[in-house]
Amino acid sequence: MARRSPFSLEGRTALVTGANTGIGQGIALALAEAGATIVAAGRSDMGETLGLIEAAGANAVPLQLDLQQPGVAAEAIAGAVAAAGPLDILVNNAGIIRRSDALEFSEADWDEVMNLNLKAAFFLSQAFAKAALAAGRGARIVNIASLLSFQGGIRVASYTASKSGLAGLTKLLACEWAAKGINVNAIAPGYIETNNTQALRADPERSTAILARIPAARWGQPSDIGGAAVFLASDAATYMHGAILPVDGGWLAR
Ligand SMILES: NC(=O)c1ccc[n+]([C@@H]2O[C@H](COP(=O)([O-])OP(=O)(O)OC[C@H]3O[C@@H](n4cnc5c(N)ncnc54)[C@H](OP(=O)(O)O)[C@@H]3O)[C@@H](O)[C@H]2O)c1
Protein backbone atom coordinates (compact mmCIF):
# COMPACT_ATOMS: atom_id res chain seq x y z
CA MET A 1 0.00 0.00 0.00
CA ALA A 2 1.29 3.50 -0.87
CA ARG A 3 2.49 5.53 2.14
CA ARG A 4 0.17 8.41 3.07
CA SER A 5 1.77 11.79 2.41
CA PRO A 6 2.13 13.86 5.61
CA PHE A 7 0.53 16.69 3.63
CA SER A 8 -2.56 14.66 2.71
CA LEU A 9 -5.92 15.84 4.05
CA GLU A 10 -7.81 12.74 2.83
CA GLY A 11 -10.67 11.93 5.19
CA ARG A 12 -10.55 15.36 6.90
CA THR A 13 -13.33 17.96 6.90
CA ALA A 14 -12.61 21.70 6.90
CA LEU A 15 -14.85 24.67 7.63
CA VAL A 16 -13.60 27.75 5.76
CA THR A 17 -15.28 31.11 6.45
CA GLY A 18 -15.57 33.66 3.65
CA ALA A 19 -14.99 30.90 1.09
CA ASN A 20 -16.92 32.50 -1.78
CA THR A 21 -14.07 34.71 -3.01
CA GLY A 22 -10.48 35.86 -2.53
CA ILE A 23 -8.14 34.18 -0.08
CA GLY A 24 -10.92 32.03 1.43
CA GLN A 25 -11.73 30.60 -1.99
CA GLY A 26 -8.03 29.95 -2.66
CA ILE A 27 -7.65 28.16 0.67
CA ALA A 28 -10.87 26.13 0.24
CA LEU A 29 -9.69 24.92 -3.17
CA ALA A 30 -6.18 24.04 -1.92
CA LEU A 31 -7.53 22.08 1.07
CA ALA A 32 -9.96 20.26 -1.25
CA GLU A 33 -7.15 19.42 -3.69
CA ALA A 34 -5.23 17.94 -0.73
CA GLY A 35 -8.21 15.64 -0.07
CA ALA A 36 -10.39 17.48 2.46
CA THR A 37 -14.17 17.82 2.29
CA ILE A 38 -15.02 21.52 2.51
CA VAL A 39 -17.80 23.35 4.30
CA ALA A 40 -17.77 26.64 2.39
CA ALA A 41 -19.26 29.18 4.79
CA GLY A 42 -20.29 32.78 4.30
CA ARG A 43 -23.03 35.23 3.55
CA SER A 44 -22.75 35.24 -0.27
CA ASP A 45 -23.46 32.58 -2.87
CA MET A 46 -20.86 29.78 -2.83
CA GLY A 47 -21.59 28.62 -6.39
CA GLU A 48 -18.23 29.60 -7.90
CA THR A 49 -16.22 27.94 -5.11
CA LEU A 50 -18.33 24.77 -5.19
CA GLY A 51 -17.83 24.62 -8.97
CA LEU A 52 -14.02 24.92 -8.66
CA ILE A 53 -13.91 22.23 -5.97
CA GLU A 54 -16.14 19.86 -7.91
CA ALA A 55 -14.01 20.42 -11.02
CA ALA A 56 -11.00 19.36 -8.91
CA GLY A 57 -12.84 16.10 -8.14
CA ALA A 58 -13.40 16.96 -4.47
CA ASN A 59 -16.43 17.54 -2.23
CA ALA A 60 -17.89 20.70 -0.75
CA VAL A 61 -21.13 21.84 0.86
CA PRO A 62 -22.26 25.44 1.33
CA LEU A 63 -23.18 26.94 4.72
CA GLN A 64 -25.04 30.26 4.78
CA LEU A 65 -24.00 32.47 7.70
CA ASP A 66 -23.47 36.10 8.66
CA LEU A 67 -20.68 36.26 11.19
CA GLN A 68 -21.74 39.76 12.30
CA GLN A 69 -24.79 38.22 13.99
CA PRO A 70 -24.41 37.73 17.75
CA GLY A 71 -24.39 34.11 18.88
CA VAL A 72 -23.75 32.78 15.37
CA ALA A 73 -20.68 30.71 16.28
CA ALA A 74 -22.29 27.74 18.01
CA GLU A 75 -25.00 27.63 15.33
CA ALA A 76 -22.33 27.69 12.59
CA ILE A 77 -20.38 24.76 14.03
CA ALA A 78 -23.58 22.74 14.61
CA GLY A 79 -24.74 23.52 11.06
CA ALA A 80 -21.38 22.49 9.58
CA VAL A 81 -21.35 19.20 11.52
CA ALA A 82 -24.95 18.48 10.45
CA ALA A 83 -24.01 19.12 6.80
CA ALA A 84 -20.65 17.33 6.60
CA GLY A 85 -19.99 15.36 9.80
CA PRO A 86 -17.40 16.04 12.52
CA LEU A 87 -14.93 18.82 11.70
CA ASP A 88 -11.14 18.51 11.73
CA ILE A 89 -10.08 21.95 10.48
CA LEU A 90 -11.35 25.50 11.00
CA VAL A 91 -10.03 28.35 8.84
CA ASN A 92 -11.00 31.76 10.26
CA ASN A 93 -10.65 33.68 7.02
CA ALA A 94 -13.67 36.02 6.78
CA GLY A 95 -12.51 39.56 7.40
CA ILE A 96 -13.18 43.16 6.42
CA ILE A 97 -11.24 46.42 6.35
CA ARG A 98 -12.34 50.05 6.76
CA ARG A 99 -10.09 52.93 5.67
CA SER A 100 -10.07 56.40 7.22
CA ASP A 101 -7.59 58.71 8.96
CA ALA A 102 -7.35 57.90 12.67
CA LEU A 103 -8.58 61.41 13.52
CA GLU A 104 -11.83 60.78 11.64
CA PHE A 105 -12.26 57.04 12.33
CA SER A 106 -15.88 56.21 13.24
CA GLU A 107 -17.17 53.98 16.00
CA ALA A 108 -19.16 51.98 13.44
CA ASP A 109 -16.00 51.24 11.43
CA TRP A 110 -14.28 50.18 14.65
CA ASP A 111 -17.07 47.87 15.82
CA GLU A 112 -17.83 46.16 12.50
CA VAL A 113 -14.20 45.24 11.90
CA MET A 114 -13.50 44.10 15.46
CA ASN A 115 -16.73 42.07 15.61
CA LEU A 116 -15.91 40.09 12.46
CA ASN A 117 -12.11 39.91 12.39
CA LEU A 118 -11.56 39.24 16.09
CA LYS A 119 -14.74 38.44 18.04
CA ALA A 120 -16.21 36.04 15.46
CA ALA A 121 -12.84 34.30 15.04
CA PHE A 122 -12.60 33.76 18.81
CA PHE A 123 -16.12 32.44 19.34
CA LEU A 124 -15.97 30.20 16.25
CA SER A 125 -12.69 28.79 17.57
CA GLN A 126 -14.29 28.23 20.99
CA ALA A 127 -17.33 26.40 19.54
CA PHE A 128 -15.09 24.38 17.19
CA ALA A 129 -12.73 23.38 20.02
CA LYS A 130 -15.62 22.36 22.29
CA ALA A 131 -16.98 20.07 19.55
CA ALA A 132 -13.53 18.59 18.84
CA LEU A 133 -12.84 17.93 22.54
CA ALA A 134 -16.32 16.43 23.09
CA ALA A 135 -15.70 14.09 20.14
CA GLY A 136 -12.19 13.25 21.39
CA ARG A 137 -10.64 14.37 18.09
CA GLY A 138 -7.46 16.29 17.37
CA ALA A 139 -8.11 19.44 15.36
CA ARG A 140 -6.49 22.36 13.54
CA ILE A 141 -7.31 26.05 13.57
CA VAL A 142 -5.75 28.34 10.96
CA ASN A 143 -6.39 32.05 11.48
CA ILE A 144 -5.85 34.51 8.65
CA ALA A 145 -3.79 37.29 10.18
CA SER A 146 -2.02 40.05 8.22
CA LEU A 147 1.21 42.01 7.81
CA LEU A 148 -0.62 44.38 10.17
CA SER A 149 -0.28 41.69 12.84
CA PHE A 150 3.38 42.85 12.83
CA GLN A 151 3.29 46.40 11.46
CA GLY A 152 1.17 49.51 12.05
CA GLY A 153 -0.07 50.44 8.60
CA ILE A 154 -1.94 53.71 8.00
CA ARG A 155 -5.64 54.67 7.84
CA VAL A 156 -6.83 51.23 9.03
CA ALA A 157 -6.98 51.57 12.83
CA SER A 158 -9.57 48.88 13.56
CA TYR A 159 -8.03 46.48 11.03
CA THR A 160 -4.56 46.78 12.58
CA ALA A 161 -6.04 46.39 16.07
CA SER A 162 -8.02 43.32 14.97
CA LYS A 163 -5.14 41.59 13.18
CA SER A 164 -2.63 42.35 15.95
CA GLY A 165 -5.26 40.99 18.35
CA LEU A 166 -5.74 37.90 16.21
CA ALA A 167 -1.99 37.17 16.38
CA GLY A 168 -2.14 37.41 20.18
CA LEU A 169 -5.25 35.24 20.29
CA THR A 170 -3.57 32.64 18.06
CA LYS A 171 -0.75 32.37 20.60
CA LEU A 172 -3.07 32.29 23.62
CA LEU A 173 -5.27 29.54 22.15
CA ALA A 174 -2.17 27.59 21.11
CA CYS A 175 -0.92 27.71 24.71
CA GLU A 176 -4.29 26.61 26.15
CA TRP A 177 -5.07 23.89 23.62
CA ALA A 178 -1.75 22.48 22.35
CA ALA A 179 -1.69 19.70 24.96
CA LYS A 180 -5.34 18.91 24.20
CA GLY A 181 -4.49 18.00 20.58
CA ILE A 182 -5.66 21.22 18.95
CA ASN A 183 -3.08 23.13 16.89
CA VAL A 184 -3.73 26.85 16.54
CA ASN A 185 -1.61 28.77 14.03
CA ALA A 186 -2.03 31.70 11.65
CA ILE A 187 -1.01 32.78 8.17
CA ALA A 188 -0.05 36.40 7.56
CA PRO A 189 -0.68 37.05 3.86
CA GLY A 190 1.16 39.88 2.15
CA TYR A 191 -0.53 42.10 -0.43
CA ILE A 192 -2.95 39.83 -2.30
CA GLU A 193 -5.17 40.75 -5.26
CA THR A 194 -8.67 40.50 -3.75
CA ASN A 195 -11.65 42.78 -2.97
CA ASN A 196 -9.87 43.71 0.28
CA THR A 197 -7.05 45.50 -1.60
CA GLN A 198 -9.16 46.94 -4.46
CA ALA A 199 -8.87 50.51 -3.09
CA LEU A 200 -5.07 50.25 -2.74
CA ARG A 201 -4.62 48.87 -6.24
CA ALA A 202 -6.85 51.64 -7.65
CA ASP A 203 -4.57 54.30 -6.07
CA PRO A 204 -1.58 54.59 -8.47
CA GLU A 205 0.71 56.15 -5.84
CA ARG A 206 0.03 53.55 -3.11
CA SER A 207 0.03 50.65 -5.52
CA THR A 208 3.40 51.64 -7.07
CA ALA A 209 4.96 52.15 -3.62
CA ILE A 210 3.69 48.77 -2.39
CA LEU A 211 4.90 46.90 -5.46
CA ALA A 212 8.34 48.52 -5.24
CA ARG A 213 8.76 47.06 -1.71
CA ILE A 214 7.79 43.46 -2.51
CA PRO A 215 10.96 41.37 -3.13
CA ALA A 216 8.96 38.92 -5.29
CA ALA A 217 8.10 41.93 -7.50
CA ARG A 218 4.40 41.05 -7.81
CA TRP A 219 1.19 41.14 -5.81
CA GLY A 220 0.12 37.76 -4.43
CA GLN A 221 -2.80 35.69 -5.71
CA PRO A 222 -5.29 33.82 -3.47
CA SER A 223 -3.73 30.57 -4.72
CA ASP A 224 -0.39 31.66 -3.19
CA ILE A 225 -1.89 31.25 0.30
CA GLY A 226 -3.35 27.75 -0.17
CA GLY A 227 -0.13 25.78 0.31
CA ALA A 228 0.56 27.28 3.74
CA ALA A 229 -3.01 26.44 4.82
CA VAL A 230 -2.62 22.83 3.63
CA PHE A 231 0.67 22.57 5.55
CA LEU A 232 -0.74 23.98 8.81
CA ALA A 233 -3.83 21.74 8.54
CA SER A 234 -1.80 18.60 7.84
CA ASP A 235 0.17 16.02 9.84
CA ALA A 236 3.34 17.74 8.59
CA ALA A 237 2.64 20.59 11.05
CA THR A 238 1.82 18.43 14.10
CA TYR A 239 4.43 20.16 16.32
CA MET A 240 3.51 23.69 15.20
CA HIS A 241 1.61 25.77 17.75
CA GLY A 242 1.14 29.53 17.91
CA ALA A 243 3.10 30.38 14.75
CA ILE A 244 2.20 33.36 12.58
CA LEU A 245 3.50 32.29 9.17
CA PRO A 246 4.10 35.15 6.69
CA VAL A 247 3.31 34.39 3.04
CA ASP A 248 4.18 37.79 1.69
CA GLY A 249 6.56 37.65 -1.28
CA GLY A 250 9.34 38.63 1.13
CA TRP A 251 7.74 41.89 2.39
CA LEU A 252 8.70 41.38 6.06
CA ALA A 253 12.22 40.31 5.15
CA ARG A 254 12.86 43.70 3.57
N1 LIG B 1 -5.99 40.73 0.41
C1 LIG B 1 -4.96 40.94 1.18
O1 LIG B 1 -3.96 41.53 0.76
C2 LIG B 1 -4.96 40.43 2.60
C3 LIG B 1 -3.78 40.53 3.32
C4 LIG B 1 -3.74 40.06 4.62
C5 LIG B 1 -4.86 39.49 5.18
N2 LIG B 1 -6.00 39.41 4.46
C6 LIG B 1 -7.15 38.77 5.13
O2 LIG B 1 -7.60 37.68 4.35
C7 LIG B 1 -8.96 37.42 4.66
C8 LIG B 1 -9.75 37.32 3.37
O3 LIG B 1 -9.76 38.58 2.73
P1 LIG B 1 -9.64 38.76 1.16
O4 LIG B 1 -8.42 39.53 0.89
O5 LIG B 1 -9.86 37.47 0.46
O6 LIG B 1 -10.85 39.79 0.92
P2 LIG B 1 -12.33 39.58 0.36
O7 LIG B 1 -12.24 39.10 -1.04
O8 LIG B 1 -13.00 40.87 0.66
O9 LIG B 1 -12.93 38.42 1.24
C9 LIG B 1 -13.50 38.63 2.52
C10 LIG B 1 -14.41 37.47 2.83
O10 LIG B 1 -15.04 37.68 4.13
C11 LIG B 1 -16.44 37.49 3.96
N3 LIG B 1 -17.25 38.22 4.92
C12 LIG B 1 -17.31 39.56 5.10
N4 LIG B 1 -18.24 39.86 6.04
C13 LIG B 1 -18.78 38.67 6.44
C14 LIG B 1 -19.80 38.31 7.37
N5 LIG B 1 -20.45 39.23 8.08
N6 LIG B 1 -20.10 37.01 7.52
C15 LIG B 1 -19.46 36.06 6.79
N7 LIG B 1 -18.50 36.34 5.89
C16 LIG B 1 -18.16 37.63 5.72
C17 LIG B 1 -16.69 38.02 2.55
O11 LIG B 1 -17.95 37.65 2.08
P3 LIG B 1 -18.71 38.61 1.01
O12 LIG B 1 -18.06 38.35 -0.31
O13 LIG B 1 -20.10 38.15 1.10
O14 LIG B 1 -18.51 40.03 1.47
C18 LIG B 1 -15.54 37.36 1.81
O15 LIG B 1 -15.81 36.01 1.57
C19 LIG B 1 -9.42 38.57 5.56
O16 LIG B 1 -9.38 38.17 6.91
C20 LIG B 1 -8.38 39.64 5.30
O17 LIG B 1 -8.24 40.53 6.37
C21 LIG B 1 -6.09 39.86 3.19
Automatic annotation (TrEMBL):
- PANTHER family, from UniProt? 2-DEHYDRO-3-DEOXY-D-GLUCONATE 5-DEHYDROGENASE, SHORT-CHAIN DEHYDROGENASES/REDUCTASES FAMILY MEMBER
The entry assigns this protein to a family as follows: Belongs to the short-chain dehydrogenases/reductases (SDR) family.
What transmembrane ranges does the database entry give? none
| InterPro entries, per database record | 2-deoxy-D-gluc_3_DH (IPR011286), NAD(P)-bd_dom_sf (IPR036291), Sc_DH/Rdtase_CS (IPR020904), SDR_fam (IPR002347)
Query: What keywords tag this UniProt record?
Result: Oxidoreductase
Protein name, UniProt field? 2-deoxy-D-gluconate 3-dehydrogenase
Q: Which organism is it from?
A: Bosea psychrotolerans
GO MF terms listed in the record are:
2-deoxy-D-gluconate 3-dehydrogenase activity; NAD binding
One of its Pfam families is adh_short_C2
